[in-house]
């Protein structure tokens, strides 16, 4: 077999030190890493197990916002009463992600590190060319099966879709990723592929996700996550939207709007153009529909995934309308 | 293999006086839910090694080099089997002695003819070492372009479709019928390649002892597997013992022994130790069969009353480059709708794929979704309700042959299912129904049918002096409930309570039970069991009626009844005695009888034999997103005698869910450049999850059939897919006004 070392870290510092060594990877819920190791993408020399570390699974919610430890389970966060009431989009995104079994194992930190489902990326034995795995080797997906690939944020080097749900909601509400002492906005944590699709996260060797912080806001409180897919469960989004809205006291004029897209882009995709077009406007169906089209500005499709360009604005429009109706 | 019965209440058969017809729970259920049921891969004979396949990356070409040294140098690797050192076989794996024999890839040369073909086997002390050894082989290939898709090669007309069926058939003059029609439709539908994806992967544990073989492997046809292995290795079938007590699903992919299973046997021979070989999920997409893609065109003509004047069904399909199995999709139009002119035809391409094989309702399922869609289009073209249209074209005799049906309760199926569903209030026009949430709502229906097939089977029955009985037949339980249904037939055949019967199955050293396929296992092996029971009871009656000491003396065979472990005089039920008394007085510890199950040639000639059903579906479609959800399914089925209604209902449910899967989910997606399937895993090869099937009903319609066999059994394993897939497709049209032309129907097909 391919030997690797297993280290059970007994403290956060020990984990960080061990993980900083070449070839070392952190192991939490294991739902992504073990999968990637089985298909030959991840070849860790050392696994640093952090699943048992104390104090990293806390979920705290107050007026200012929520802080969630990196080791909190997806299912626990999804079911947390205060997350449900103050950040419905976050809870809904988690509920619609993966399967019950995976949600019970997977951690929030691991979720942020989830990698693409691009079938070419995940099949090194049969498709050696992949710029994400092997910089400069080429992209097997372009010209291949692309129904599930991104239409936004792509480059000539990579069109792999970011598959997750949670981070879409986090991007909408300006969440902060805690890498120990260093804190960075989640939108900056996820990188565009550009010419370096192998680099997906703004995380440095020796750093580790310790938690996330989601600022509380009126728009987060009135929010939703809408996920469209062919199958009812256990499928990645054809297109999804995390949307939050805050109205002026008149109950019709949009004071604040947050829109982020999933299932269509190379990273969780904040659609600021839609937000800016609607802020200060009265919520009317035609206005919303027109503004939602801005969500896919600059999109480039590869044939089989063209439908995402059609679908995504409709998902955004529906989510906004739905939040308006609950006024 | 034998099962212990553990019922925690007085069983229904004891209360009812018979086992057949009772909704017993699965006798093997407890073993399965507690993990005690031993599947093939659970076996670990002493000294066992692990074998892992190395499979081809390419679809077509040859293996130019393998780094065998690197693999052998890896710690724990014992041996690498390649074409160079593979033990000799007694028969050519590319020989095809009969249409039911399929060519196997057994490292006979360096050629690659489909992706995931076996190119080497690594045998090691651990699974991990064998897996890594296989990766270290780092094959180099000479690659040739892959032939992919229904337009990927030159079209041919196959010599036969299915197993030996004519590729082209007709009765009457279709062109004249179309010409004379008042209304005509022509429609084309495409169905994708689908893979069986049984939960349990193909697995084999093999131990050679000299020239005898001990094998644990899942098999839907033990005797056929035994015969195939015997032929390949040049040993006597009786020297091969195969155990297959449980299958984690087969669906046709375990009907014939597959290449990888035989490679496990070869690997064990090569290393001289027991070997286990288990396919990984992605390795099941190639060497173990699949359902071929089809492109089907139907033409129909109707007169002013909506009666068919002509029905033309053409199916294009695909097979491998090196073997023949052609999905007989167009043949679905032979049996359902009356028409003076019917023509069916097939053509095909040969592609760089593994050979397609039988997959649950092969031909019937693919043909049904196209036929039922076209019938729906024809009804609409005539301005008729789809149910009314089907009744207008109801076949009183089998349309293609003119034979009478042995039984056909399809009208009653239509009636019961339509009533339960509430079909009468359906508008004929599409896109008229919306629910309170604004979802487009559609109702569709389809007719289900599947032939009542019988193969050959044998059984052996024993009555023992302690009053108990034994019934033996090498039947196969794929999960359908054979352990239970056959024990019920055995109990009635022996005139015993079910817990007095030791029912043995799932092993090749038992009488040949034939194949668990074609929805014919219960009828075939059931009749063998029934006849074996009758034979041993006849012997027992001979003993009693010829014995002056018996109260049955002189009654004669015809004058005796067997029930509850006793024989009674038919003319005087107060006179009788127990089996134990009869055998004890005769000084016998046991007596045995043998029985066979087989189709009756005379009734085969005289009658068309089919099960029938009607399926109604409701779907809801989001008008903006094209997202389809099936919200209700109601099916009613008539399939002759029901041995166990609980198990039968489960078969219908499973089939109907598969129909949903066919219409909306399943598709193997191929990279056209490499010929590789890009979703060869259960995360991305979609089947419905529980949430996709919120409400499902299966009604059992009473049907007596005096002609199919003495028990009146047809078969229920496959029929549920037929009808359902089309019903869902037609409901999608009714909801949206968009006619599905390719399956599965996806979001992008309905975005508008």
User: Beta-strand level of the residues of chain A, as a percent range?
Assistant: 15-25%
Task: Give the oligomeric state.
Answer: heterodimer
- What is the overall silhouette of chain B? globular
Compute the separation of the termini of chain A in Å. Answer: 59 Å
Percent helix among the residues of chain A? 25-40%
Structural class of chain B: alpha+beta
Give the termini separation of chain B.
Answer: 57 Å
**Per CATH, which architecture of the domain at 224-325 in chain A?**
2-Layer Sandwich
Major sheet characteristics of chain A: 5 strands, antiparallel
| Average pLDDT taken over every residue of chain A | 96
The CATH class of the largest domain in chain B is Alpha Beta
Number of domains of chain B: 3
Give descriptors for this structure.
heterodimer, A: 327 residues, alpha+beta, Enolase-like, domain 1, five-stranded antiparallel β-sheet, four-stranded antiparallel β-sheet, 13 helices, 18% strand, B: 752 residues, Aldehyde Oxidoreductase, domain 4, Aldehyde Oxidoreductase, domain 3, seven-stranded mixed β-sheet, five-stranded mixed β-sheet, 27 strands, AldOxase/xan_DH_MoCoBD1 (chain B), Ald_Oxase/Xan_DH_a/b (chain B)
Q: Topology of this structure?
A:
The complex is a heterodimer of chains A (327) and B (752).
Chain A (H helix, E strand, L loop, with lengths): L4 E4 L3 H9 L3 E4 L5 H6 L7 E4 L9 E4 L2 E5 L4 H5 L2 H6 L1 H8 L4 H6 L2 H5 L53 H7 L3 E4 L2 E4 H4 L21 E5 L2 H4 L1 E6 L10 E9 L6 E9 L6 E2 L1 H7 L6 H8 L13 H20 L2
Parallel strand pairs in A: 1-3, 2-3
Antiparallel strand pairs in A: 4-5, 5-8, 6-7, 6-8, 9-10, 10-11, 11-12
Helix pairs in contact in A: 5-8, 11-12, 12-13
Chain B lengths: L11 H5 L12 H5 L15 E7 L5 E5 L2 H6 L3 E5 L29 E2 L5 E7 L2 H10 L3 E4 L25 E3 L2 H7 L2 E9 L11 E7 L2 E5 L5 H12 L6 E4 L15 H13 L3 E4 L15 E9 L5 E13 L21 E10 L12 H18 L4 H7 L17 H12 L11 E2 L5 E12 L5 E8 L4 E4 L9 H13 L6 E4 L16 H25 L14 E4 L2 E4 L2 E7 H8 L3 E8 L3 H6 L3 E12 L6 E11 L6 H20 L31 E5 L20 H16 L10 H4 L2
Parallel strand pairs in B: 1-12, 10-11, 14-15, 19-20, 26-27
Antiparallel strand pairs in B: 1-5, 2-4, 2-6, 3-5, 7-15, 8-13, 9-10, 9-12, 13-14, 16-17, 17-25, 18-19, 18-24, 21-22, 22-23, 25-26
Helix pairs in contact in B: 8-9, 8-16, 11-12, 15-16
């Amino acid at each position: 077999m391919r030997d690797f070392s297993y280290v059970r870290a007994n403290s956060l510092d020990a984990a960080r030190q061990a993980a900083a060594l070449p070839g070392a990877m952190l192991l939490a819920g294991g739902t992504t890493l073990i999968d990637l190791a089985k298909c030959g993408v991840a070849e860790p020399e050392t696994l640093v197990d952090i699943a048992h570390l104390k104090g990293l699974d806390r979920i705290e919610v107050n007026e200012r916002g929520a802080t969630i430890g990196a080791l909190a389970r997806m299912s626990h966060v999804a079911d947390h009463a205060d997350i449900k009431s103050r950040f419905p989009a976050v809870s809904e995104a988690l509920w619609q992600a993966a399967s019950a079994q995976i949600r019970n194992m997977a951690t929030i930190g691991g979720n942020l590190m989830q990698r693409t489902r691009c079938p070419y990326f995940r099949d090194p034995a049969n498709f050696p060319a992949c710029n994400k795995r092997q910089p400069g080797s080429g992209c097997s997906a372009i010209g291949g099966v692309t129904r599930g690939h991104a239409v936004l944020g792509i480059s000539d080097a990579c069109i792999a879709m970011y598959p997750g749900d949670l981070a879409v909601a986090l991007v909408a509400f300006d969440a902060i990723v805690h890498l120990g002492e260093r804190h960075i906005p989640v939108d900056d944590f996820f990188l565009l592929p550009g010419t370096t699709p192998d680099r997906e996260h703004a995380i440095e060797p020796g750093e580790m996700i310790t938690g996330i912080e989601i600022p509380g806001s009126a728009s987060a409180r009135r929010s939703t996550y809408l996920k469209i897919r062919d199958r009812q469960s256990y499928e990645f989004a054809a297109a999804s939207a995390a949307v939050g809205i805050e109205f002026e006291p008149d109950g019709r004029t949009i004071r604040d709007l947050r829109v982020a897209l999933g299932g269509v882009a190379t990273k969780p995709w904040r659609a600021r153009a839609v937000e800016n077009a609607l802020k200060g406007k009265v919520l009317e169906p035609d206005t919303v529909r027109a503004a939602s089209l801005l969500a896919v500005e600059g999109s480039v499709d590869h044939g089989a995934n063209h439908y995402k360009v059609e679908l995504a604005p409709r998902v955004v429009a529906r989510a906004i309308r739905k939040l308006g109706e609950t006024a | 293999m034998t099962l212990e019965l553990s019922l925690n209440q007085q069983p229904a058969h004891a209360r009812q006086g018979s086992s057949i017809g009772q909704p017993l729970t699965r006798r093997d259920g407890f073993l399965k839910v507690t993990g005690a049921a031993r599947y093939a891969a659970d076996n670990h004979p002493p000294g066992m090694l692990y074998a892992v396949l190395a499979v081809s990356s390419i679809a077509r070409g040859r293996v130019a080099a393998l780094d065998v040294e690197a693999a052998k140098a890896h710690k724990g690797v014992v041996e690498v089997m390649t074409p160079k050192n593979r033990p000799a076989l007694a028969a050519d794996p590319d020989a095809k002695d009969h249409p039911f024999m399929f060519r196997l890839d057994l490292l006979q040369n360096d050629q690659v003819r489909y992706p995931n073909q076996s190119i080497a086997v690594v045998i090691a002390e651990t699974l991990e070492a064998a897996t890594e050894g296989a990766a270290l082989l780092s094959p180099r290939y000479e690659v040739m372009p892959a032939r992919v898709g229904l337009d990927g090669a030159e079209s041919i007309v196959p010599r036969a479709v299915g197993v030996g069926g004519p590729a082209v058939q007709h009765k009457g003059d279709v062109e004249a019928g179309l010409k004379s029609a008042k209304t005509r439709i022509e429609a084309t539908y495409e169905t994708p390649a689908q893979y069986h994806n049984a939960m349990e992967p193909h697995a084999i544990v093999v131990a050679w002892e000299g020239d005898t073989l001990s094998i644990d492997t899942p098999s839907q046809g033990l005797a056929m597997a035994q015969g195939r292995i015997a032929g390949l290795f040049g040993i006597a079938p009786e020297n091969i013992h195969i155990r297959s007590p449980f299958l984690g699903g087969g669906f046709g992919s375990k009907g014939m022994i597959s290449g990888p299973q035989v490679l496990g046997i070869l690997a064990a021979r090569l290393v001289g130790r027991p070997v286990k070989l288990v396919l990984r999920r992605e390795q099941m997409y190639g060497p173990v069969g699949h359902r071929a893609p089809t492109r089907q065109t139907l033409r129909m003509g109707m007169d002013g009353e909506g009666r068919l004047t002509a029905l033309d069904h053409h199916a294009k399909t695909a097979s491998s480059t090196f073997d023949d199995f052609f999905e007989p999709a167009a043949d679905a139009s032979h049996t359902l709708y009356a028409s003076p002119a019917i023509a069916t035809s097939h053509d095909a391409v040969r592609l760089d794929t593994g050979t397609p094989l039988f997959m649950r309702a092969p031909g019937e399922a693919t043909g049904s979704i196209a036929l039922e869609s076209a019938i729906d289009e024809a009804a609409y073209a005539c301005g008729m309700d789809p149910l009314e249209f089907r009744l207008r074209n109801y076949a009183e005799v089998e349309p293609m042959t003119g034979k009478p049906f042995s039984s056909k309760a399809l009208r009653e199926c239509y009636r019961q299912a339509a009533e339960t569903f509430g079909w009468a209030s359906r508008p004929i026009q599409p896109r008229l129904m919306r629910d309170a949430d604004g979802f487009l709502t559609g109702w569709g229906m389809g007719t289900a049918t599947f032939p009542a097939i019988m193969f050959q089977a044998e059984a052996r029955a024993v009555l023992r002096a302690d009053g108990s009985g034994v019934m033996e037949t090498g039947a196969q339980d794929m999960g359908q409930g054979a352990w239970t249904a056959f024990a019920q037939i055995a109990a009635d055949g022996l005139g015993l309570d079910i817990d007095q019967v030791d029912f043995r199955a799932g092993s090749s050293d038992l009488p040949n039970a034939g194949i668990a396929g074609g929805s014919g296992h219960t009828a075939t092996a059931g009749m063998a069991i029934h006849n074996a029971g009758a034979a041993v009871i006849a012997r027992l009656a001979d003993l009693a009626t010829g014995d002056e000491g018996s109260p049955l003396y002189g009654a004669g065979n015809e004058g005796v009844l067997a029930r509850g472990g006793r024989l009674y005089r038919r003319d005087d039920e107060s006179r009788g005695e127990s089996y134990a008394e009869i055998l004890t007085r005769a000084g016998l510890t046991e007596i045995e009888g043998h029985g066979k199950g087989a189709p009756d040639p005379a009734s085969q000639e005289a009658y068309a034999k089919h099960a029938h059903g009607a399926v109604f579906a409701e779907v809801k479609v989001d008008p903006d997103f094209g997202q389809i959800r099936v919200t209700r399914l109601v099916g009613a089925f008539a399939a002759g005698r029901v041995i166990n209604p609980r198990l039968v209902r489960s078969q219908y449910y499973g089939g109907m869910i598969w129909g949903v899967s066919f219409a909306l989910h399943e598709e193997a997606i191929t990279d056209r450049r490499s010929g590789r399937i890009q979703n060869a895993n259960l995360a991305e090869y979609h089947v419905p999850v529980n949430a996709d099937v919120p409400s499902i009903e299966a009604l059992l319609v009473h049907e007596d059939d005096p002609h199919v066999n003495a028990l009146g059994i047809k078969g229920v394993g496959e029929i549920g897919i037929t009808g359902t897939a089309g019903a869902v497709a037609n409901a999608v049209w009714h909801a949206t006004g968009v006619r599905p032309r390719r399956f599965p129907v996806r979001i992008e097909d309905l975005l508008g």
